[in-house]
Amino acid sequence: MITKHEQILQYIESLPVGDKISVRQIAKALSVSEGTAYRAIKDAETKGFVSAIERVGTIRIEQKKKENIEKLTFAEVVNIIDGQVLGGRAGLHKTLNKFVIGAMKLEAMMRYTGPGNLLIVGNRTRAHEQALQAGAAVLITGGFDSEEEVKKLADELELPVISTSYDTFTVATMINRAIYDQLIKKEIVLVNDIFTPLENTIALTTKDTVGDWLDKNRETLHSRFPVVDSQLKVHGMVTAKDIMGNEKELSIEKVMTKNPITVSLKTSVASAAHMMIWEGIELLPVVDEQNRMQGIISRQDVLKALQMTQRQPQMGETLDDTITNQLDILDGKSSEVYKFEVTPQMTNQLGTISYGVFTTIVTEAANRTLRAHKKGDLVVENITIYFIKPVQMESQLEIHPKVLEVGRKFGKVDVEAYNDGVLVGKALMMCQLLDRQ
Description:
Strand order of the largest sheet: 18-19-21-22-23-20
Strand content: 25-35%
CATH topology of the largest domain: Udp-n-acetylmuramoylalanyl-d-glutamate--2,6- Diaminopimelate Ligase, Chain: A, domain 1
Number of strands: 23
Mean pLDDT: 85
Number of domains: 4
Helix content: 25-40%
Oligomer: single chain
Distance between the termini: 54 Å
């Protein structure tokens, strides 16, 4: 029998691309609770049916293949710019290769416009027609409409004609930012990219016995198995260590490790690696939001993925990279004091330094100071920010890290931030120190 959760997912999947979705709307349409609707929408986002876009809402999107992750669909462009589709709705699933700003004569404009492109232009009907005939979609800025002939041509060619109230510069910036965000996401390898799916996974059930583990062990030569119930919910993990010395008739539930550590499809491989290292785990079950098993990920999978990412060229610089690159040693100081300028992109909606940026500054300054005392890798175990005062953009900060204690396996650093000689932030950080093998 189909569950309410699966029923909601099927309903969402049946909605047209570009439709807005809300918890209240789903709950009302399918007569379910808002909590059930919320969980299903989050699951749909994980599966790639919907996308939550800031200041727009949750939108039904075309589920993309993994190889197209760095490209945007025209449907996503509509959502990003809060646009209106005037024609060619059937082509919204197509991907955008590049965009062309039509701020030139028509003949010159057409030289740069081709299949898979998006021409950003004002109310120039001839440009609209020729762009469509060249295989490009059209984005009309300034809130202008298009001629009926252009809309009919767009429908015939299945190429979207979109209108937005934003100006050309704003639209180009928004699309460029979205493409950049996609490239950053591409660099972050997730469990979803490397896990072994459920159909290729061997698991034991809560009704199985130690004897069943021995049979599975002989068949597969594996010694670690997740334990699930009839609904595929993960209840435990069982290993050779758990089995030793027990009778074959004993229930698996009696010997398994209950409430095991699990990961989701959206967990980063780096995060999974940390869990495995700190907890000494060789295998992690991959689960959805209802704790239902989706597959497994092994330590070998993680190591291979990390090796591959180290060989790949970087596609772009993240905000963390920008912050750490701006943290420089302050000239003329006997001890290690760092300087940092607060740029507009590092501020919140009030124009003052964001909490996240301050945390990154503190962490990086403490890391650098500890590395000067002890060679090796560091992992942040705990960070306490005692206070942070508003710091305006373009302010120059002085960061004073001070090592309070350093041992063989841990370090404690106090970090103070000053603006024009006034203390504006204070934090304490605890790190674990890892010796390089």
